[in-house]
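Before going further, it is useful to explain how the protein records used in this thesis are read. An example of such a record is reproduced below.

***
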Amino acid sequence: MKKKGRALKIKMIIMDVDGTLTDGNLLLLPDGEELKT
């Protein structure tokens, strides 16, 4: 099956924002705030 045909069958993508969309690092700001990078 061609790639486009396989991609059209996808109904849902589940992603973990703590690892999939970030590199897993935390940035600590001087005021104590934490940011995910």
Notes: DSSP finds one helix and two strands in the chain. Strands lie at 26-28, 34-36. Residues 3 and 33 are 43 Å apart (CA to CA).
